[in-house]
Amino acid sequence: MAIDLVTRAEWGARAPRGAYSPLASTRGIKIHYTGGHVDPRIVDDHARCVTAVKGIQNGHMNGNGWLDIGYSMVACPHRKVFVGRGPLHLPAANGPGLNSGHYAVLGLVGNSGLVEPPDDMLNAILDAIDYLRAKGGAGKEIRGHRDGYPTDCPGTALYAWVKKGAPRPGGKPDPKPEPAPAPPFPGRLMQYPPMTEGEDVRDWQTQMRRRGWDLSADGQYGPRSEHVCTAFQREKQLDVDGIVGKDTWKATFTAPIT
After folding, report:
1. Taking the model in full, what pTM does it have?
2. Rounded to the nearest 10 degrees, what angle do helices 223-235 and 246-254 cross at?
3. Contact criterion met (CB below 8 Å) for 74 and 38
4. Rounded to whole angstroms, how far apart are CA atoms 226 and 191?
5. Residue 179: which pLDDT band, with cuts at 50, 70 and 90?
6. What percent of the chain has pLDDT over 70?
7. On the chain, which terminus has fewer CB atoms closer than 10 Å, C or N?
8. Taking Cα atoms as reference points, which of 134, 130, 131, 133 lies closest to residue 168?
9. For the chain, how many structural domains are there in total?
10. Residues 137 and 215 occupy one common structural domain
């Protein structure tokens, strides 16, 4: 089935306040939910979906002060996909420092009212992902907003679906590729204090960014790097010492992304 796009003109989008920042490609897509109440009646009335999307845009522009709605695309329960900022434009919804890594796709569910995404909404999310891959250079990753950012988004139901591999309803998740072997351990510990500096630090930071962590790849292992390392070690049940040794280095490159 071809994507059923609802253009900005069709849903009555306000004009953005300025020019979007360009985005040539991303590692993939992050999935979002509204975080509020979604009227369950939208399942039977597409006009209510339009009203909801307009309300989200107004909240982002008037409340957050953003130049436009923060999402790249919005999926509704009628297997329709609303154009938000669209492909090749930087989204705003993923969090500071994280928007260039992934496009942002919203499923119109919330934390009350409509909380379980219908199959047609899941299909619409996947249609939006396919579109962003074809038109916006999106990579293969499908992550939840909470991956790398402290939030409950995209909610219990949507995140469980993402964790299963985001399968088409009635289909099977794509098989996960075997992880590539880790590059050789550089032979020294990365720790703070004192600050460890070098290309090996930059390589570790770059890989942690690929995993979704909010971290600059500046080649300086300072307090932010130590904080991210500690959180990662806790997540992967490693010794929690904030030091990148052989085990943490290996896990950085080979452990499953959760």
Report:
1. 0.69
2. 70
3. no
4. 7
5. low
6. 95
7. N
8. 130
9. 2
10. no
d(CA 68, CA 88): 15
Neighbours of 166 (CB within 10 A): 19
Sequence-separated (6 or more) residues with CB below 8 Å from residue 2: none
Cα 158 versus chain centre, distance? 12
DSSP structure class, residue 40: G
pLDDT digits (tens, 9 = 90+) for 55-86: 999 999 999 999 999 999 999 999 999 999 99
Q: Is residue 191 part of a domain?
A: no
Kindly state whether residue 183 falls inside one of the protein's structural domains: no
Integer Cα distance of 26 and 62 in angstroms: 28
Domain shared by 205 and 149, yes or no: no
Tokens 């909801």, residue? Answer: 52
Alpha-carbon Rg for the chain in angstroms = 20
- Structural domain that includes position 118: 5-163
**Does 174 reside within a domain?**
no
